[in-house]
């Protein structure tokens, strides 16, 4: 028990919680030169981008599982220096796996283990802060099973591989590897229409990795129309589509493969094209984006026909993602950095941190926990004490952020009590660890 306490104390003192849940501007960066959206050195991208996805790590020729990443426009040393320059500014740089034209499939244990080893080498070589799963097409598909009990080898092997990569990284670096996902709508919200093939195929992956997942930013483009959780159909490129698709992954929904339990709003970001030429469809004009996001975070009126199920919206929504930074930077497609400007317009005058008031709120999730327990309050500074059923203190700390994630790996299964105190009130809540 003392070893667990020491581990958690070090975890706190070195700020090794989940990342700050302030609104994030997330953008993909092309590892190739598109004449219409030219390469930008990483260290010269707009400073408002806080998380940069490097597109992409891909399989070596002749395989669909042995991964590689080779900087296309820069030497490895120059690219590494650019990554480090961004990181020195507090930015996170993560490597995205796959992309629209790449097939990745872990069909057996040998391929899974090769994937683990080669992705680990890429991450360590360039010092990436995380990985992003951007598998499309037949890379992810379901033929049976359920969301909570998948049976397809390519899905179960991918889940196991990501868990092992994250575990290896933590062992080597004593900190979490960030995990994000960028599925297309058919793979997620499409599960409301059908559960099979690509329809709903990401849902078992999201479910199995929800404790480790930092941000889900579904691609709300190249989509066509999709059902919302209100049973109505919404069309891409509109405020209603953004709102309906976003609330669906927060509230959850039922499928023929079982119930998909939603994610906390602070794990969800909105993914949109930077300008009309950046995607085949789904570009949404600036005014519609602003109206949609402000309604979602509770700072604006309803812009269309979709009504949020949660009154007041989701003030802790994680932010916005775009394909891509390269497209956002060019003036031939839209105003230079139009997407970054839109993000700033929405969030620069909006605080996602509630003011301290007489009502002290504490949310603990997921509960039961597997690997991490998230604790969210509406107070900037609180004390936290976790005890087991014997009254032994497992953790005793001061929390300076309103939303943190504490590792529970190594805790004995069972019930714990978290006592969270601000300057006015104490809240005691049960934590179950599986």
Count structural domains. 2
Indicate the proportion of strand residues. Answer: 15-25%
Outline the biggest β-sheet.
9 strands, mixed
Regions with little confidence, pLDDT below 50 for 5+ residues: 1-20, 350-358
Helix content: 25-40%
| CATH-defined fold name of the largest domain | TIM Barrel
**Individual helix count:** 9
- Examine the secondary-structure arrangement and name the CATH architecture of the largest domain: Alpha-Beta Barrel
CATH superfamily (homologous) name of the largest domain: Glycosidases
How would you characterize the overall build of this protein?
The chain has 434 residues and is of the alpha/beta class. The protein has two domains: 326 residues, Glycosidases (TIM Barrel); 72 residues, Immunoglobulin-like (Sandwich), CATH 2.60.40. 25% of the residues lie in helices and 25% in strands. The protein has nine helices and 20 strands. Helix 7 packs parallel to helix 9. The two termini are 17 Å apart. 49% of the residues are buried. The N terminus is likely disordered.
SSE topology:
Elements: H1 2-13, E1 24-30, E2 51-59, E3 67-68, H2 76-88, E4 92-99, H3 109-126, E5 130-135, H4 153-173, E6 178-181, H5 203-208, E7 215-216, E8 225-227, E9 233-235, H6 239-251, E10 252-255, E11 258-261, E12 269-273, H7 286-296, E13 319-323, H8 325-329, H9 338-347, E14 362-365, E15 372-377, E16 382-388, E17 393-399, E18 403-407, E19 414-421, E20 426-433
Parallel strand pairs: 1-2, 1-13, 2-4, 4-5, 5-6, 6-7, 12-13
Antiparallel strand pairs: 2-3, 8-9, 10-11, 14-15, 15-18, 16-17, 16-19, 19-20
